[in-house]
Known about the structure:
Layout: E1 2-6, H1 17-25, E2 28-31, E3 49-52, H2 58-70, E4 75-79, H3 90-98, E5 103-106, H4 111-118, E6 132-136, H5 149-153, E7 158-162, H6 168-178, E8 185-190, E9 198-203, H7 207-213, E10 220-224
The structure holds S-adenosyl-L-homocysteine.
The site of S-adenosyl-L-homocysteine has 24 residues, from helix 4 and strand 10.
Amino acid sequence: MIHFVGAGPGAVDLITVRGQKLLEQADVVIYAGSLVNPGLLDCVKRNCKVYNSATMTLEEVLEVMEQAENEGKMTVRLHTGDPCLYGAIREQMDWLDEKKIPYDSCPGVSSFCGAASALNLEYTLPNVSQSVVITRMQGRTSVPEKETVASFASHGATMVLFLSTGLLEQLEQQLVEGGYTPDTPAAIVYKATWPDEEKYVCTVSDLAKTAKEHQITKTALIIVGDVVTHHFYERSKLYDPRFTTEFREAK
Ligand code: SAH
């Protein structure tokens, strides 16, 4: 059996209890070494075989999985954050389906949640934004034409950009072209929840400059929207004394 496990955003105590138990039981671990904190591997069994997928091709990863399966072993495929975002898990799962190798998936804390905690942010403030757009700039991986940053920017909603730290000048342009004003609050969170986490609040027009100043070129998320400075929001209805809910009568 193969278990795809979300490692969380970085801090070793931000893996789920279920994920940690699977790691403790694993005979084989294949971890995404470019972003997964190696400290998470401290809990594996002494005879557990550990592979770093950063130096492997998809074919090599699949070969390790198949061999482990043939030997009746349990494998954990450890992906950063939550595997469902930019995790390249579908191609592994399709191949496992073909080989009739069983697998399941254990969620993790995504880095966009880790980044919110780093800044004590609520992405969905009443009257400011009630939506979070999770996207990326086009890099070597293409982005469908209908999903340009400019088109999402036209909504003015909260936006979180993965995998885009190397493209901040173009990002600034697209954000403004789409409709955010240059002074819209923005933030850069580098290595959210890791011991060497860094976070900077700036504006849309300052993103590239801020990253350059602090030499941030990767492992960062960009957050855009008025929620970053959280002014002018409406109180929640849920906790309003005048509001009746399923659990509480209005006073
Ligand atoms: N599945 C992962 C994302 C993998 S894509 C998740 O749910 O978080 C890799 C990108 O995620 C990086 O380029 C960076 O943009 C972002 N990222 C991952 N971990 C991060 C962290 N701790 N802090 C900031 N950004 C992070």
